[in-house]
Amino acid sequence: MTETILITGATGNVGTEVVRALPDSVQGRLAVRDVRKAQSQIDTVHDFVPFDFLDSHTFAPALRDVDRVFLVRPPQLADIAIFEAFINVASECGIKQIVFLSLQGIERVSFVPHAKIEKAIIASGIPFTFLRAGFFMQNLDTTHRQDIAEKHDVFVPAGNSKTAFIDVRDIGAVAARVLTTPGHENRAYTLTGMELLNYHEVAKLFSDVLPFTVTYSDPNLLHFAWRFWRRGIPLGQVLVMCFLYTMTRFGQAAKIHDDAEKLLGRPPIKIRQYIEDYQQVWH
Q1: Average pLDDT, the chain
Q2: Nearest residue to 175 via CA among 126, 140, 133, 134
Q3: Phi/psi at 32 (nearest 5 deg)?
Q4: How far apart (Å, rounded) are the C-alpha atoms in residues 252 and 136?
Q5: Cβ-proximal residues to 57 (8 Å cutoff; 6+ apart), any chain
Q6: At 218, is the secondary structure helix, strand, or coil?
Q7: What are the phi and psi torsion angles at 79 (to 5°)?
Q8: Positive or negative, the Cα torsion across 122, 128, 133, 138?
């Protein structure tokens, strides 16, 4: 019997890649706020369902007849009660597994929303798989695209620390695998790439690929927070970004894990390949 998998965040960076990586043997159900808009963005054989974390009335219809869930926390939502409500409905619907996109090192930082969501999933008794991902390469073509494209600067307050970046295409492939193959229940995987780079080295790689020189300015936290708040990023999200880059500055992202390589059955994508694949974004 074909299983049905609910994909939250289906139009986001990772969700889109999960949808692409789903095998033909499963039926995807893409949870989106605006079905018509999503249908124009994503060319897929899978179904769409109206869904909004801020409207609990959408939870049960979206979860009806679903076997497994890929759960993503929208970055602007920090109220854990929202996710607890969703998890409770998932439990009532008999969901077999929740695969939650979490953060590298979250097991050591209990006050961050992702850690609280992990705790709520465990408490629900639903079998879980936590994908504790390192820094997305694709942050550089979304959150930091404007600074690289217009100012030719990687505007990140990370000091000289190194990061084991992970490509969201690899995260999507891993998520699809753990959703559709047995043996991953009640486990946590830390997903990183297999190379450690500081942002000076990242800027050099950008300079090698793009037709202009990219530098790394390493702003202080106040300057960083002020710029992104002025751009309209919610304050809570800006503070989370500052926290994560502070963790990076103190070396918390400077560790390679081989979970992604083992689950993919190949080496993860390297950042130079990522820049080459996405180079038109910064032109």
Answers
A1: 94
A2: 133
A3: -140, 155
A4: 15
A5: none
A6: coil
A7: -75, 110
A8: negative
Which DSSP symbol is given to 270? P
Q: Tell me, what's the pLDDT at 95? A: 98
Structure tokens at 184: 């991953």
For residues 270-281, give the mean pLDDT: 98
Scan for tokens 């960076």, then name that residue: 13
* pLDDT tens column, 246-257: 888 888 888 999
- Report which DSSP code applies to 145: H
Question: What's the distance, CA 107 to chain centroid?
Answer: 17
pLDDT number for residue 40: 87
CA dihedral 141, 118, 48, 280 (to 10 degrees): 10
| H runs (alpha helix) in 131-218 | 145-151, 168-180, 199-209
**Token pair of 156, please?**
């990140």
Residues ≥6 apart with Cβ < 8 Å to 132: 102, 103, 104, 105, 106, 107, 188, 189, 190, 191
Q: Flag whether pLDDT at 243 surpasses 90.
A: no
